[in-house]
Amino acid sequence: MNGRIERMGVIKADEAVRVSRRRPWWWAALAAFLMAALPQTAWAASAPPAIDAGDTAWILASSALVLLMTPGLAFFYGGLVRKKNVITTMFQVYSVILIVSVQWVLFGYSLAFGPDVGHIVGSLKWALWNGVGAAPDADYAGTIPATVFGIFQMMFAIITPALIVGGLAERVKFSSFLVFITLWAIFIYDPLAHWVWGVGGWLRNLGVLDFAGGTVVHISSGVAGLVAAIYLGRRAEYGGPTIRAHNVPFVLLGTALLWFGWFGFNAGSALAANGLAANAFLTTNTATAAAALGWMLVERLRTGHVTLVGACAGAVTGLVAVTPAAGFVTPGASIIIGFVSGVLCFFSSTFMKQKLGYDDALDAFGGHGIGGTWGALATGLFATTLVNSAGANGLFYGNPHQLLLQLIGVVSTWAFSGIGTWILIKVVDAVMGFRVTREEELMGLDLVLHNENAYPEMPSVEEVQRVIAQVPRRDAGGRGWERVSPVGAGLSSEPSDPAAPASKG
C-alpha cells in the first residue's frame, strides 16, 4: 500500500513538471508582475515581527551590564560604611539579586508589564513566565524576543531596591531587611513600573517621559531610603568621628563599575543597537563627568579641598540625573543636567541633611531622590523630538505642557513610594522588629548578624563585648552615651558623646 502511494506521488510530480514545461514564458512573467503589484503592507501585516540578531545581542549584553551595577553598588556602599559593617552592607545589596531574580519570574514581570488592570498594575497572566517566549512583543520591543526584554527589565527591578540600603545602613536586622525588600519589590516597584512603562499604565498614557528610570528607579528608591532613615532614627554613633568611609578604593571601584554598567542601563533602554542608543551612551558619559566636576567645584569652594569620595559621589549623581533624559536630550543639554545635579546633590547630601537632622547614612535620598527628581524635571525642559521622534519636546523646545506632565510623574512617585514604604516598614517592624539593639549596633553587624569579619585585624565578639561593657549608659543627669530611641519614636537630640571610647570599627 505504501509503495503504491509513493509511486502515485512520483507520477503526479512528473505530470506537474510536463504541464509546467508546456506553459508559455509569458505566464511566469505575468505571475511575477502580479506578485510585485500586490500591496506589500498586506503581506507585512500578516507577518510576525522579525527578530534582529544585532538588537538581541545588544540587549543581552546590556542586561549583563546592568546586573554588574548591583555588585558595583555593593562596593560603593561597602566602602562608605565603617569596617565593622561592610559585610552586612554588601550582603544586603547582594541578597536583593537573589530575591528579585526569583520574584520577577514568579509574578513580578507580569505585575509590571503584563496585560493592564485598571491602568495601575499588570495582571498575573504572565506569571511563571507563562506566554513570555522567543517571539517578540511588539508592544514593548519588536525586534528582540520577549524573554530578552523581560531579562533586561529584571535587572532594573534588582538594582532599584538595592539602592534603598543606603538609607538604612548599619542599623537593621538582616532577616527584616529581606522581608521588607520582598514586599517593596511587589507592592512598590512592580506597580510603579507599570504606571510609567507598562502598556496601559496611567503615567505612560498621560505622556510622562522616563527613558531609563528617573521616576521608577531613582525617585522611588531615594524616597524609600529617606522614609527608612527617618523611621529608624539616627545611628547610635551618629555625628561621631568614627562615622566615615572606611575604604575609599572600594568607593572608587564601585563608582567605576556603576559607570560602566550604566551604559547598558541607559543606552540599552533604546532596546535596539541604533543611533538612539549611541545618543544615550554619549549623554550618559558627559552628564556623569559634568556632575563630578560640579560636585568638586562646590566642595572646593565650601571646604577648601576636593576629595575622591566627593568626586565619586558626584559622578553617581550625574548618572542618576541623566537616566530619565538620556534618550530624549542632546549631548549639550546633558552637560547642563549633570553639572546642576552635582551641585544640587552636594547640598542635599551635606547642608540639607545636617539642617533637617535625618541620618540618610549613604545618601540614598540625597543622591537618588534629589538627582532623580532633577533629572525627571530636566527632561521636561530639554527633551526634543530631534533626538527621539517617539518622545516629545520640552519647555525649551516650545512645549511647556511636558514640564507639567513631568511634575505630575515626580509628585505621584514621591507620594506612592513614600506612603507605601512607611506602611511596609510599620508592618515589618510590628511583626518582627526592624532595628537591631544599641549593643548590637555598637559591636558591629558583621559579627552580630553574620559571625564574619571583613578584615583579619578586626576584634572578636568577646573583645567587642568587653569594650561595650565599659561604655557608660545615660544617667538621670543626661550624661554618657545616648540610648537608641525606639523605632519610629523620632530623632535623638544628642548624637554622640565625645568622651566615649573610640570604636575599633
TrEMBL record:
Transmembrane segments: 60-81, 93-112, 144-165, 177-199, 211-233, 245-265, 277-298, 305-326, 332-352, 364-383, 403-425
Compositional bias ranges of the Low complexity kind: 492-505
A Pfam family it matches: Ammonium_transp
Cellular compartment(s): Cell membrane
Region (Disordered): 475-505
Alphabetized UniProt keyword annotations: Ammonia transport, Cell membrane, Membrane, Signal, Transmembrane, Transmembrane helix, Transport
All residue ranges annotated as the Ammonium transporter AmtB-like domain in the record: 57-455
Gene Ontology CC: plasma membrane
Leader sequence segment: 1-44
Molecular-function GO terms, alphabetical: ammonium channel activity
Source superkingdom: Bacteria
Gene3D superfamilies in the cross-refs: Ammonium transporter AmtB like domains
Topology of the protein relative to the lipid bilayer: Multi-pass membrane protein
Family recorded in the similarity comment: Belongs to the ammonia transporter channel (TC 1.A.11.2) family.
Name of the featured protein: Ammonium transporter
